[in-house]
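Async update (no meeting this week)

Hi team, since we skipped the sync, here's where things stand on the single-chain job. The sequence we agreed to prioritize is pasted below, unchanged from the tracker. I ran it this morning and attached the output directly underneath so nobody has to dig for it. Comments welcome in thread, and please keep replies under the output.
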Amino acid sequence: MTTVNRNIVNTYSGLFEGLDNFTKMELIKRLTKSLNKETNDTEKAFYKSFGAFPDDRPAEEIAETIKASRKFREKGINF
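Output:
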């Protein structure tokens, strides 16, 4: 355990001393549940966010379509 982790554990254990037994048991349950979760959940969520724009066309073709659909108008700026 690193020094930083040891300090974090000591800090939290000091906070837990003032809690009642029911609250401590609830914390134990939640910590246990978090340990049982698959470690790749964060990574899976990250990769799951990809593909939010479903399209089978290549990226270059999509970019060209977007660029071609742009419409610009001339607007004079008066100073």
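Quick observations from my side:
Helices lie at 3-16, 21-36, 41-48, 59-68.
The radius of gyration is 26 Å.
Reply here if anything looks off.
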